Amino acid sequence: LANLVQGLNSTDPDVKEKAIAETEKRLRDQEAGKEEESKTTVNRTVINTRASVRLFLLWNGFLAALEKDAKERAKRRKKNERLANALKEKGNDAVRKGDYEAAIQRYTEGLEKLKDKQELYTNRAQAYLKMHEYEKAIGDCEWALKCSEKYIKAYYLMGKAHLALQHYSESRKCYQKILQIDPQKESLFKDCMNEVNLEEKRMKEEDRAMKEFLSGKPAALSVKELLQKLDRPDQNILYYTGGIRVLTGSVKDCTEQTLFRTNNGFSIINDNEVVRRGFCAERKNIAEVDLSVSLLLLWQAVCAGNEENQRLLLTHPDVNTQLSKLLSSGVSEIQKETLALIVLYSENENGRRLLVRHQDLSRWLQILVMFVNNTDARACNAMNILSDLTQEEKFKTQCRIMFSTGVLPLFTQLLTSAKLVNQAALAHCIGIMGNLCADAVIRTQMAECKECWQACLKLVDEYFDVGTPKYQECLFAVLGLMMNLLLESNAIIQCLAVDVSGRCLSLLRDKDGRIVTRAIGVLSRILPASSLAVEVVVKGGVVKKMIKFLKAGGQITSNYAIKTLSICTRSNRQAQEEVVKSDKRFSVLLKLLESENEIVVGNAAFCLGHCLEVPGAATSLLNSNVVMILLKHAGGDATRTSVQENAAIALGKLCVAEPRHIVQLRELNGMAILNSSMKYVHSI
């Protein structure tokens, strides 16, 4: 029977047919045996033995497919579990380093591999708690409980998140659930319940302090009266936090801003030790975080559009010292409001100058670039501040101090991790780094960083796989950065020229015209660094592509395309021949020679001069106006000496290759110019 089943499953048609025949025979013999055993029973049912065999085959095939699918799913799950565990460990490493954004990314990637891995949900929830994103933490704990309804860690973290949101009853329910699942966790239960009770008591005290602060008729209190209430000594931190919030709400226009200043509102820190200590604390507790956020909101209210208040705040010693510390505090609420405050300065020229004058901005570039890892408004605000600050030359000068040791490694890492970070912010950040390249010192440091170039190439490669609009903006910015870096020339650029050129050649097929234009721009600047790169792109069809783009006629694209062609034809015979073949009678080059842009004219004349070395090329230009055009540029119409020389060289090569052009030259009285151009022809 086993041999029969094996034959039925055989892939050999002959073996399978033989097995079917044997099966049918056995079924007939079995039926005949039954009839012999009982002669009294008349069975007139006709048995379709072949249909039975087919049904057997279908059923057997279904079971086999089911078993195969189960094995494949088990294999995939085992592989995904291994990948998920590796990502979990990477996330755990990031948590130990305090990089919670990276940890969240790793845990998220792990969940994409294995959606029912409860530890990844709770680990990510723990990272969200550190980032004060409590709602997200609760969501992850709920998912973990769907994986395992008795998962104690999920209830514990959910209780923490509810407590932070002041959901005291929900927090208690989570901790009570822990005790129900495991009565031996009574000690943990008591500690958690005590924490809830203390926090609830603290909030009641804060409410009581607020009511005390607002005793009397709060609606009628002026800015001056509110400041006087804040001047009371020996109150707890909750009293001052509540008072600052009330004061912030009362500052609604420039009149209240002036009253705040004239009533010594900025002395609230140095005159009050409780406020000063809470604001300047290195590791802030919840109450100190609330106080700091309240102060930042107050300063936003009193400084918005008020230059004098902005000056007074920034010259305050404690504020001056704390701004960079607040930015790098890791507490999202503090970072958010600190960035919002700095935006008030960076968005206007006077404010930027105050920052440059009174702040040590040497670390600001590194600190602000780190916000690219954030997915919220902090990333956008940080990039806007940087974009504004790069308008100040003194800021660029300060950036040099830590650029190579602090900023460049961080920026390279962000480029390498482009898939994982805030891509809109990353695109903005890349553009900012491109603007910083206007500083020769910074540009040189970036251009000499091989890791930075490799990270740029990695981003280009990933674009071919990802291709999303946000990634497209990153690519556009990277191409602009590469163009700026290629103003430099060094051994690393020469070494990577073939790789860079190859990527740009591939990008010429992109549907986004901006990408194509910048890819051509990079080609025009990278190709002079390597003759091998020229050879590679010429073999890859770059000449035909450049002719195509030149025919389309975009001004910037044409500028880059003709420069690329001039570089390729300078030393590559194949490129010269392809121009002659692709540009019939040099119609494209002749049109470019009449451009109002002298750089385009110079490159077109340069390219034409080299292409005239191809046999028959000069003859194809008979009966054209090429002599008159070149004569005009060589004779002095062009203001640039290099353009005059290129036109003169092309004119000389034209007449040497095809003497019949000399007739037209004589008619135009251009022999003197031809004679003067011959020295250029002989020198090349």
Main attributes?
684 residues; 37 helices; TPR repeat; mainly alpha; Serine Threonine Protein Phosphatase 5, Tetratricopeptide repeat; 77% helix; single chain; 0% strand
How would you portray this structure in words?
It is built from 37 helices and no strands. By secondary structure, it is mostly helical. The longest helix has 48 residues, at 49-96. Mean pLDDT is 87; it is low at 37-47.
Average pLDDT for all residues: 87
Instruction: Say which CATH homologous superfamily of the domain at 74-183 is assigned.
Output: Tetratricopeptide repeat domain
User: Which percent band covers the strand fraction?
Assistant: under 5%
Helix content: over 70%
Poorly predicted tracts of residues: 37-47
Distance between the termini: 89 Å
So what's the overall shape? flat
Which radius of gyration do the C-alpha atoms yield?
A: 38 Å
Number of helices: 37
The CATH architecture classification of the domain at 74-183 is: Alpha Horseshoe
Largest sheet: none
Class of the domain at 74-183, according to the CATH hierarchy? Mainly Alpha
Q: What is the total tally of β strands?
A: 0
Set down the secondary structure blueprint.
Elements: H1 2-8, H2 13-37, H3 49-96, H4 100-113, H5 118-130, H6 134-147, H7 152-164, H8 168-181, H9 186-213, H10 223-230, H11 237-250, H12 254-262, H13 273-280, H14 286-303, H15 307-314, H16 317-327, H17 332-346, H18 349-358, H19 364-369, H20 377-389, H21 393-416, H22 423-436, H23 440-447, H24 450-466, H25 469-485, H26 491-507, H27 513-526, H28 531-539, H29 542-552, H30 555-571, H31 573-582, H32 587-593, H33 598-611, H34 626-637, H35 641-657, H36 661-667, H37 671-683
Helix pairs in contact: 1-2, 3-4, 3-5, 4-5, 5-6, 5-7, 6-7, 7-8, 8-9, 9-11, 10-11, 11-14, 14-17, 15-18, 17-20, 20-22, 21-23, 21-24, 22-25, 24-25, 24-26, 25-27, 26-27, 26-28, 27-30, 29-30, 30-31, 30-33, 32-33, 33-35, 34-35, 35-37
